[in-house]
Queue: 2 jobs
Job 1
Amino acid sequence: MKANGRFWLAVGVALAAGPAWADNATIPYATLAQYRTMFNALPAAQRDKLMFVLAVQHRNDSDHAPIHMWVDHGSKRTEIPVGPDGTVSLPDRPDWIAAGVAVQTDQPHGSLNLGFDMWIKPPAGKTTPVSYVLEGVQQANDAMRAGARKMGGYLAMLAAPSVHSISIKLAGCCDGSVTISSAAGKVAAHEDKSGIVAIEPDVLRDHADGTITASAPIMVLDLFPN
């Protein structure tokens, strides 16, 4: 999803220059892994509606160059896949934490931000109860607040983050729509030119007993924090 919807952590984490790669950004693998570790440490019942997604983004919004990441450990290089939307497929490697391994990038020092998404696990098909999405929103709110408290420092002093918008990505692009139906009536929303249907949580709360029906299979339910 659009990168600026992510909960960006550049205020708490700087992508630093390492001695062997003075011109490019590097970051300790342990720093990248800690956010997923904190998420996975939540009780399963408090995150069963959510997916955790780590991401990087160019600080310069006009820079759309692909970002490559890798780890050199011993004599072996391991590529870390970065999707076109910035999502990072980070391998689970406790041995890299113990070894103090750093993740290398091909981008200049100071040019990247690190952040994470929490997505609601998409339903199978075109429909889902509104209550399912609202439960995912509440889980995300609780997880973000718990994470800010755990990290302490500057983030702990910020106002508690919460989801202010839900972006629904449908299969295909870009003439789809989503209809929310309940005893209170119907609300329809349409994809924008980037293929996103944006809905505010308050709209869902007004139709909490209803159903979300999309014109195409729902692929992603992305959560935009304040």
Job 2
Amino acid sequence: MDLHIHYRSDREIVAEAGPLFFRVVNGVETDQAAVDRLVMVLDQLLERRPTVGMIAIIEHGTPTPTPEIRQRVDTELRRYGDRLVVGYALLGLGFWAFDANEFAASRAANTDAPVFAERSVAKLAGRMAAELIGLDADAVARSCEQLRASLGLVAASEAAMDAAAQAAAQ
């Protein structure tokens, strides 16, 4: 997949590839400007395609959005209806992961779009490929990891979190 970068900082990257919108966030708060970027890219994608996917990779420690931002995100996502499939990779543990999962669950309850959350990039890529026919799950996962690597994040961190979660469950 050829990635086109729309925005990049040292803690966030917004990109598109084919029918997918990507946002990777590592510890930065979601503000109005971030929602503006989301809307701009999704609007552009939906001008060219009947259905698109939004992949949000949220790294451990990233703050959950404020109630005002949540309300705006819900309002914006409702505009797209079933033309948008939303997937979150919530890459963290403990109370942070619980809060992040609650955020994703409330997006599903407050929008018309199919919304799902996974604890790994690979699982998210597989779910997105199942929702958007014609996507290659491995190519989606590689694009996700390429974006994460560009922010200095590595796939090994995800494997370490999975191992820690399994150890804690025993």
